Amino acid sequence: MGRFTMVQFHRSSRAIRRTAAIGGFTLIELLVTLSIAAILLTLGVPSFRYVMEDSRMDKGQSSLIDAIQFAQSEAVKRNAVVAVAPSSGAGWTRGLSVTVGAEQLRSLDSLSGVTLSCVGDCTGLSFSGAGTTTAQTFHLCSNRGNGRQMTLYATGKVKLGSWSGCNA
């Protein structure tokens, strides 16, 4: 009987060792995997910053275009003069407001990580009841020095393009 039990124990311990070897990771495998993941992260994080910066540029561009299109449609709808101007009066980057006389129709938040400026002396835009305005050019610059130019035509159409005049 003792011998039968020993053979049974020997077979079952071999099965346990085989199951443990199949089901887990060794310390070496775990360390290699973690080091490969760390290398990939260090390569990917700088490019993620560029993606975030491009996203901020897209947001700044769309904020201005949305405000322009909204102001133009409200001017036509109300047959009144609708203005788009910096919220604080300090600059276009600090936020925009769309107004009819003293009534504020919409307020847009300030932009982060980018600078929006108007070329020339423009403190605001005014759309007439016919939906027309004076032509104007805006520059949007990132902290990295990339730039976009938005040209507003008198008809209210906005033309987009790149601009290389930003200083990082």
TrEMBL record:
<dbReference type="GO" id="GO:0015628">
    <property type="term" value="P:protein secretion by the type II secretion system"/>
</dbReference>
<keyword id="KW-0997">Cell inner membrane</keyword>
<feature type="domain" description="General secretion pathway GspH">
    <location>
        <begin position="63"/>
        <end position="156"/>
    </location>
</feature>
<keyword id="KW-0812">Transmembrane</keyword>
<dbReference type="InterPro" id="IPR045584">
    <property type="entry name" value="Pilin-like"/>
</dbReference>
<dbReference type="Pfam" id="PF07963">
    <property type="entry name" value="N_methyl"/>
</dbReference>
<feature type="transmembrane region" description="Helical">
    <location>
        <begin position="21"/>
        <end position="45"/>
    </location>
</feature>
<dbReference type="GO" id="GO:0005886">
    <property type="term" value="C:plasma membrane"/>
</dbReference>
<keyword id="KW-0472">Membrane</keyword>
<keyword id="KW-0488">Methylation</keyword>
<keyword id="KW-1003">Cell membrane</keyword>
<dbReference type="InterPro" id="IPR022346">
    <property type="entry name" value="T2SS_GspH"/>
</dbReference>
<protein>
    <recommendedName>
        <fullName>Type II secretion system protein H</fullName>
    </recommendedName>
</protein>
<dbReference type="GO" id="GO:0015627">
    <property type="term" value="C:type II protein secretion system complex"/>
</dbReference>
<dbReference type="Pfam" id="PF12019">
    <property type="entry name" value="GspH"/>
</dbReference>
<keyword id="KW-1133">Transmembrane helix</keyword>
<comment type="similarity">
    <text>Belongs to the GSP H family.</text>
</comment>
<dbReference type="InterPro" id="IPR012902">
    <property type="entry name" value="N_methyl_site"/>
</dbReference>
